Amino acid sequence: xxxxxxxxxxxxxxxxxxxxxxxxxxxxxxxxxxxxxxxxxxxxxxxxxxxxxxxxxxxxxxxxxxxxxxxxxxxxxxxxxxxxxxxxxxxxxxxxxxxxxxxxxxxxxxxxxxxxxxxxxxxxxxxxxxxxxxxxx
Length: 137
What we know:
The chain is mostly beta strands. The chain is 0% helix and 50% strand. It contains no helices and 11 strands.
């Protein structure tokens, strides 16, 4: 492995499949991330086409020691805050945001809280690194 070899040193998992919420509410994450072998975790949230300048999409990071019992992570367990990682309609299409997890819990999931939605497509991926072995090994 060459120095600076990002390609072979990360694991990427879909966190939220592309979704188009028609109303306000929660988009629940599709996958719970297990940090056991790749503890460094960053979520990248992406917005596709948006038509409402008043909408907001706020990430909520859930964590826990058991994959089926997750609670909202406090800001002290995050890189960035959920509020500052929020996307809004004024940012427009193709905007991205990120929020990282630095807490001690093994299992983490990302949800999105949508307010004032009209149209738009949102998705997120989990990027993990710091593995004890290569992600594809």
